[in-house]
Amino acid sequence: MTNKLSDKTVGRLSLYRRLLNNLARSGVKYLFSHDLAAESGATAAQVRRDVMAVGYSGSPTKGYEIAELAASIARFLDGECSQSVALIGVGNLGRAILAYFSGRRPNLAIVAAFDRDEHRVNRVIHGCRCYPVDVLQEKVAEVGIRTAIIAVPAGEAQTVADRLVRSGVRGILNFAPTHLRVPPNVFVQEIDITTSLEKVAFFARQ
Amino acid sequence: MTNKLSDKTVGRLSLYRRLLNNLARSGVKYLFSHDLAAESGATAAQVRRDVMAVGYSGSPTKGYEIAELAASIARFLDGECSQSVALIGVGNLGRAILAYFSGRRPNLAIVAAFDRDEHRVNRVIHGCRCYPVDVLQEKVAEVGIRTAIIAVPAGEAQTVADRLVRSGVRGILNFAPTHLRVPPNVFVQEIDITTSLEKVAFFARQ
DNA sequence: TAGATTGTTAATCGATTAACAATC
DNA sequence: TAGATTGTTAATCGATTAACAATC
Question: Given its phi and psi angles, is residue B13 left (phi above 0), alpha (psi -120 to 50 degrees) or beta?
């Protein structure tokens, strides 16, 4: 179960699950690899390999049973118990992230937010309690948080990351436009909106 | 100049430029490939290859002249004239994006935002005029916008993308959790925050 | 000069794609 | 059965890494 799975495969599985849940809601029972491929942007062969990786099998005539496949992916992606997430930085982007995840994923909820600005702390934003950043390490260690989202300005991101890692965080989603230096046992996913937009603008011009 | 450059290379170049500009501001004049590598998370060999791609040359003893290299990258990434960007969806995320880019990049500015909700339109948010989505095609074609950001709910993203493409847009930054189907001459960069967070949570548990 | 770095090619690696026997 | 799809392996592709002569 704790296989070595590539970054990309895990990303695709997460996407498949969401698509499958949507389809299940609309009453569809089965689909073929090429259906899921068309929905997700992957290829049918990728879907088949990814499905294989989670240990689920389909039928050559009926395809995959949607509910079963979704359940297999869930078993694979989600841990035994639900995971708590911390958010650091409650500016425009941080608040958008809070709003976005508010009550959406019960297994993966942002349970604590932190900010340096005292006007933003000691209140509840989109259902999430905001604390001063001074209590970051204490709080993260206390709750046993292992996943964090960094949405602070570039200059503060590395300091925040260091403190997170010291408190036991093992995965960071980093929106700050800075490459974070972390130990090899910590997974970092960088989302650099400026770079993404510049890429789009570049290829739009070609 | 209009070379076939990979997605990843363009992304790294965009990041290098930002790092170089920061260094230039702090008064540094030269750096070596491994310095830029350490800052960006790339390898020194990647930096050398990327620099080669933009047609700039360094010196084995001094390294790269920061200002010159930044200028070469800028010539390469930016077009002749500045590019206008449209934003569709002025919800929490859309407003965060507006705030983020507001006045930051003169060459790549969000000049028009669109939303379906009439409470959000016909006003200026973070310096950007918001229009009803009905005038999207008209406005995009009129201004000659070729780059757009989609920040609408998943269900509306494909419709919006179709209309954008019909109006002449050739690059889309898509925050909606939907795989967009577009013609092959349109570049799409998907930023799926939910998938990214699930990936981080998954690897944090390993 | 000696030494480190550059520009650039060759070797490696990993992921994607093609292919096909097994299956229902 | 005939036919399409599955599970899975082999071939392909592209990007990363290693290597090294040329350079200052």
Answer: alpha
